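Appendix B, record 7
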Amino acid sequence: MSLFIPVILPLVAIMLLLFSYRSVRLQQLISMVSMSYLLVHAAIILSKVVQDGPFALQAGGWPAPFGITFTADLFTAIMLLTTSVLALLVTIYSFGFIGETRKKAGFYVLIHGLVTGVNGSFLTGDIFNLYVWFEVMLISSFVLITLGAEKQQLRGAVKYVVLNLIGSVIFVTAIGLMYGQMGTLNMADIALKLRETEHTQLINSSLMLFFVAFGIKAALFPFFFWLPASYPTPPMAITAFFAGTLTKVGVYVIIRFYSLFVVSDQATWQVIILIIAGITMVSGVLMAASSYDIRKILSFHIISQIGYMIMGLGFATVIGLGGAIYFMVHNMLSKTATFLAGGLIYKFRGSYDLKEMGWIYKDKPLLAFLFLLPALSLAGIPPLPGFFGKLFLIYGGFEIGAWKITAVAIMVSIVTLFSMIKIWNEAIWKKIPDESQARAKNKLPGTSLWASIIMVALIVALGLSTGYLADYFFEAGRQLLDADLYIKTVLK
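C-alpha cells (predicted):
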C-alpha cells in the first residue's frame, strides 16, 4: 500500500491537465477520474490502518530519520478520506459554477496542486518536508484566490498573501531553531530524543514559533483577521474548498506537534491553548452575528469552529482529542456544504446580501433544505453530527473539570444557532423586500445541485452512524496520546 499515491496522483493529473488546456471538457473528465481514484485510494489507506494499525514508508529505501518519511495513523487516514470527499464533490460542483474563463486559466490544475499540498502535509513525517508541502498548498491557494483578477479578489488576496508569508517566515525560523536544538527534523526522532533528555523545556522557543505559524494558517485568535477579508472574494466553489481544508491543515499540524513534542510544561500549554480556543470561538461567532453578507457570516463561523477543535486539543484526553477529530470531520463537511448552498442561493437570487433576498423556501424548497441541514449541524442540533461533536467536547470538558471553557462553548453554540436562523429568516423565509420588482429565478446548474445534495446526504449519514463510528475517532485520539506508537511506526 503506497502512501505516495495521494501526492503522486494529483501531480500526474496536473501534467495531463496542462496538455489538455484547450479542452475544458477533457479537463473535467481528467479531474473527475483523478479525484475519484484519490477517494478510493484514501478509503483503502483508512481500511489498512483500521485493520493493521499505523504504518510508514521511506522514500528511496533510506531508513528514518535520514530519508523522507510518509506515515499514516488513524488521524491521518481520516483526514485524507475527508479531504478526498471534499475534493471530488467540489470538483463536480465547479462544473456548473466556475466560469469558462477561470477554467481555461488553470482552475483544475490549481485545485490538484492544492490537494497535493494538503495530502503531503497530512502524510509527511518530517518537519522540513511539511514546510515544502505547506508552500505547495499556499502557492496554489494564492493563485486560486486571485483567479479572475477582480478588484475585490485582489484586495482580499493582499491580506491573505502577506499574513501567510509572515507565517511561512516564522515557520522557517522555527525549523532552524528546532534543528539547532535537536539535530534532526524527523518528527518521530525528535519525539524520541525529547523522551530521552531532561532538558525538554529547551524547545519551548521553537514550539511557540510553530504555534504562531500554524495559528496564522488555522486562523486562531489573534491572527484570524485575514480570513474574513479574503475568503469571501473568490467564487463560492473555491471558497468552499478553502473553508473545508486549508485552516484544518493548520489545526491538524498543531494537534500532531502538541501530541509529539510537548512532554514538559504540559499544564502551561494547556492553559494557553484553552484561553486561545475560548477567545477564538467568541470572536468569530460575535462577528458572524453582526454581519448580513452570507459569505462573511460563514467565513466568521470558520473562525469560531476552529476554536472548538483547539479546545479538544487543550483537554489532552481521549474524549477531548477524539471529539476534536470528529468535530473536524463534521465541520469540513458541514462548512463546505453551507458554502456550496450559499453559492447556489447566489446563483438563484443574484446576491449575497441577506437584505435583498427572500422567499427561497417558496420558490426553491430543495435549495432551502440544502442550506438548512448543514446550518443546523453547525449550530449543534440533533441528530446531526454537529450535535455529537459538541457533545463529545463538552463531555471531555466536564471530564477534566474545565467548566469555564465548556460554558463558553455552549454559549457560542447558542449564538451560532442565532446567526444561522438569521440567514434562514432573511434569505429563505421572509418575503422579497420590494414586491414591485420581479424576483430573480435563475436556473441552478445540475452538477452543482447534485454535489450539494450528496454533501448534505453525507452529513446526515455521519450523524446517524455516530454510534458506530465514534469508536474509530476515539481510537484516533488514543493513538495521538500514545507517542511511542508513532515513534515505533516510523523508526522501526
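Remarks on this record: The first helix runs from residue 5 to 19. The two ends are 18 Å apart (CA to CA).
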